[in-house]
Amino acid sequence: MTSILQSCKPRQDLIAGSFNPEVFTASLRQVVGHYRGDVKVKTTYTDAEAFFSEATSPTHGMRRVVEHVMRRLAGDNMVPFLSRLETGFGGGKTHTLIACAHLAHRGTDLADMADRVGIVDSKYLPSPGAVNVVGIAGDELSVVQSEGEQVHPYTLWAELAKQVGGTELVEQVRAEAFTPAAPGESFFDAVLGGRKVLIMVDELAQYAARAEAAHRGMGEQIAAFFMALFNYARNHEGIAIVVTLASSTDAFAGQTKTLAKLLQAVSGSQISQDEAREIGEQAVDSIQSVIARDAKV
């Protein structure tokens, strides 16, 4: 039998002593920014070929999520529109999001790579550039925006519009984008209507905690936003959503449990405004309890 020392060869940078572990710190924002031209740094994560060939060994769970996402973007409404990833820190959530981002952006350009790695059947891949890819990193997204001496809430729905259609689309929906109140169906028609859109939200609980601290009542509005977004995606083809939450035993556990309940409630069928309000109130209570607890420390 071949030993592990014979079958596994260390990377050259390990042998040379030049290995930098920071290149393996997954960042969804960095990858999304790379495709938009905002991020110039090239890493294993921003290079699709290196990412799949050198840094990815697809698990069953990753393959299932990627297939559902690609099929949904292709118009197959027989697969779930929503994928919820909930593991502890370091469990591979962001890695899965980055795989989806590369495949949605590059599509059939990565067909050979997808087949070789075995991450998804290439027949499900879109044409390059056919999908609007939204990647929101909740641990990095600002919760406020300054205009002169005025400070306004910076919402998830404003960021959604910005990443789909840039400043022109943001201006078109400004009345709803920069208000703390969750938007209605007309907003989603303007932002998502007639488009293929992959929406990925990483570290949602972190954003929810900071938003509630900055603007009282935002926890409830975030719940209302996702209820409306999910109901819209369910009834319109070509929209796939992936949301990550840390394990309920990690930081932001209160927010994580409440948001997980919301995601579970809306993933199967529509929920009423009263149910959404109840979940939102629970979100506010859990977020405020964390804030109060931390204030005593």
Question: What are the SSEs and their pairings?
Answer:
Elements: H1 4-7, H2 12-16, H3 28-36, H4 48-54, H5 60-73, E1 82-87, H6 93-106, H7 111-117, E2 132-137, E3 144-147, E4 150-153, H8 156-172, H9 174-177, H10 185-192, E5 197-202, H11 204-214, H12 218-234, E6 239-246, H13 253-268, H14 273-296
Parallel strand pairs: 1-6, 2-5, 5-6
Antiparallel strand pairs: 3-4
Helix pairs in contact: 3-6, 5-6, 11-13, 11-14, 12-13, 12-14, 13-14
Outline of this structure?
With 297 residues, the protein is of the alpha/beta class.
Describe the structure in your own words:
The structure is a single chain. The protein has 297 residues and is an alpha/beta fold. It has a single domain, classed as 3-Layer(aba) Sandwich (Rossmann fold), CATH 3.40.50.300. The chain is built from 14 helices and six strands. It has helices spanning 4-7, 12-16, 28-36, 48-54, 60-73, 93-106, 111-117, 156-172, 174-177, 185-192, 204-214, 218-234, 253-268, 273-296, and strands at 82-87, 132-137, 144-147, 150-153, 197-202, 239-246. The strands form two sheets. The chain has a four-stranded parallel beta sheet with strand order 1-6-5-2, with helices on both faces. A two-stranded antiparallel ribbon has the order 3-4. Helix 11 crosses helix 13 and helix 12 (218-234) runs antiparallel to helix 14. The longest helix has 24 residues, at 273-296. Mean pLDDT is 79; it is low at 247-253 and 268-297.
